[in-house]
Design goal:
Distance between the termini: 10 Å
Strand content: under 5%
Shape: globular
Number of strands: 0
Number of helices: 13
Helix content: over 70%
């Protein structure tokens, strides 16, 4: 297991370095100027030159990138141009909220998607299976930017069951979680159904049933475990998508996470904040997929043997 872990970490490090380079170049090559956005059009040339020198923007891009990576190695994400605060401080305040929303959405997608997909596979070609697949197609087709306002209008405004926006109590978490996790739940249900159907067609399942074991017991004890293996990969990928998709949901429901500050930073070309938030999402994505790989290897020793 130790060798398996070292190989996965070895693959994650160059991936993270490439992501850092791409994000750095993307924000620096984007149009507009952060100095002009901060000082305004009436700023003098001396003021602009002084600010560029203060933030190191007058240096060549390769030098800026090396300095940025050097700062990252010491835990320094830079200082926000607009807010004039360390990016690490903003991350410490904002990211736990986004992580909580993404985790609750992932748990929601698992709680809904896994049983729905399993039951649909068990009753294959039944009315329940067809109805479930119709719901899956509908949820996959509706993005959170559309589902969110519908939930606000129907549940919060019309029925007044839940608050419309904010992050003050558990009641405020429900609507953002549903808006963010519904599409993920549909994807999980579809893959769980497909994986369990493939598992139920295997010879050992037919043999167990032929020996006299009831079909529900065979499905529960043998089918579900093996069907979950491919779904683990989908869950890891979905968590990364939930982190990035939370930006839209946080804006709709006024959730005080990294989504709102990231959008504002993109508008004002606040390079350190954009880079820090993008790098944070990339690190989270890599760590989650690393955890999925380890879990995959722990469940199926053949994965470790081939790695």
């Amino acid at each position: 297991m130790a060798q398996f872990l070292l190989r996965r970490i070895g693959l994650a490090i160059p991936t993270l370095l490439v992501v850092t380079f791409l994000v750095f170049m993307a924000v620096h090559l984007a149009p507009s100027d952060p100095v002009e956005n901060k000082l305004g059009e009436k700023a003098t040339l001396e003021q602009r030159t002084a600010m560029r020198h203060h933030y190191g923007l007058d240096l060549p891009l390769p030098v800026q990138f090396v300095r940025y990576v050097g700062g990252l190695l010491h835990g320094d994400f830079g200082e926000s141009f607009k807010l004039e605060k360390p990016v690490s401080e903003l991350i410490a305040i904002k990211f736990p909220v986004t992580a909580q929303l993404a985790i609750t959405a992932l748990l929601f997608s698992m709680a809904v998607g896994l049983p729905a997909g399993a039951v649909a596979a068990y009753f294959h070609n039944s009315w329940f299976d067809r109805a479930m697949m119709a719901i899956v197609v509908a949820l996959v087709s509706v993005p959170s930017i559309v589902l969110g306002p519908l939930l606000i209008l129907g549940i919060a405004v019309k029925l007044r069951w839940l608050p419309t926006s904010g992050w003050e109590s558990p009641a405020y978490v429900i609507l953002p979680t549903i808006a963010l996790g519904s599409r993920s739940a549909a994807v999980v249900a579809r893959f769980m159904r497909s994986s369990l159907l493939d598992t139920l067609r295997q010879d050992y399942i037919r043999t167990a049933i032929a020996k006299g074991l009831s079909r529900p017991i065979v499905v529960w004890k043998h089918g579900i475990k093996n069907a979950l293996l491919p779904v683990l990969t989908i869950l890891g990928t979905n968590f990364g998508a939930l982190l990035t998709g939370s930006f839209v949901v946080e804006t709709l429901f006024h959730v005080p996470g990294i989504g709102d500050i990231s959008i504002e930073s993109i508008r004002y070309r606040d390079y350190p904040v954009v880079q820090g938030m993008a790098l944070l999402v990339a690190v989270s994505y890599i760590l989650v997929n690393l955890a999925v790989d380890l879990l995959y290897g722990a469940v199926d020793p053949r994965i470790r043997a081939r790695s």
